[in-house]
Amino acid sequence: MEILPEMAKFWVLLSVFVPSLLCSIFVLYHLLFNRVLRHALHNHVITVLLIIGLIDELTFYPWMLYYLPWQNAWQRSYMFCLLLGFIDWSLYIAHTMIFAWAMIERHILIFHNSWVSTRKKRLFVHYFPLIFLLLYWFVFYFVVYFFPPCDNRLRPTSLVCIYPCLYDNYTLSMWDFVAHQIVPIVIITVFSSALILRTLQHKYRMRRAIHWRKHRKMVSQALSIAFLYVVILLPYTIVYITRNIYSVSNYFINVFYIYINFFTYFVILLYPFVCALSLPEMQIKFKRMLQLKWQTARVIPTT
């Protein structure tokens, strides 16, 4: 008996996927076409993450939804499996790594804004790390999946139907796990906690009310997204280490791992909602849309 039936996964994913896709397009539209939002430094990383998530939602998630009910009848080619594996794993890792940098950058933008006060400083402190992470992510996983010095292995019955042969190398496998999974979630956890403490210190101890109002949006936005990552990815990382590094395995750990592994796919799906709710401009637009809809519904035709 399956602990989590495939059709249950299908309907749960579908119920979140469609609203998430619409929300991604809606939030991206306003971030890109609103001049104030587009030029705000703290929105740049958020926009990049929305674009990465939208690419994932337009490619991997429809394939995943098709796989769940048709997995036994879906024959996939070697090249398709390479593309599927590359998109699934690389975009997930890119999303986590770039948001980890976003948490570090929040401290710079709020508490050390002189570091980005000139165009040259913004180039090195704000733009260069983001460009470097994107280039590193693309080159690393492109080589791992498409140009390995060995033969990748097919896994026809799995959702991700390819296993990169380079992960047979213990050093590379541990680098991918530690540098790309453990370090980002530790950074997100530590820097989000530090952001709360530093914000409280500046607000109450130094009594800088104007300073707090100025940066409250950045703080609430970062902490809202960090909460999503910590709630889902931190338990997954702990259970993964317990099962695969320390070889501790029992029924309850295995059941929890199955559930938490499935829900890691919801980080990207839930991200647009958290962005929309954490952006004050989006909240105002949602309220206006709801008010307009309510007022329209109350209009009574007269003769």
UniProtKB/TrEMBL annotation:
InterPro entries per record: GPCR_Rhodpsn, GPCR_Rhodpsn_7TM
Major site of localization recorded for this protein: membrane
Localization annotation: Cell membrane
SUPFAM superfamilies found in the cross-reference section: Family A G protein-coupled receptor-like (SSF81321)
Residue intervals of the G-protein coupled receptors family 1 profile domain: 23-275
Single GO cellular component term: plasma membrane
Topology of this chain in the membrane: Multi-pass membrane protein
Superkingdom field: Eukaryota
Coiled coil: none
Transmembrane feature ranges: 12-33, 45-65, 77-104, 124-147, 177-197, 218-241, 256-279
Alphabetical keyword list: Cell membrane, G-protein coupled receptor, Membrane, Receptor, Transducer, Transmembrane, Transmembrane helix
Keyword Glycoprotein: no
Keyword Nucleotide-binding applies: no
Gene Ontology MF annotations: G protein-coupled receptor activity
The name this protein goes by in its record: G-protein coupled receptors family 1 profile domain-containing protein
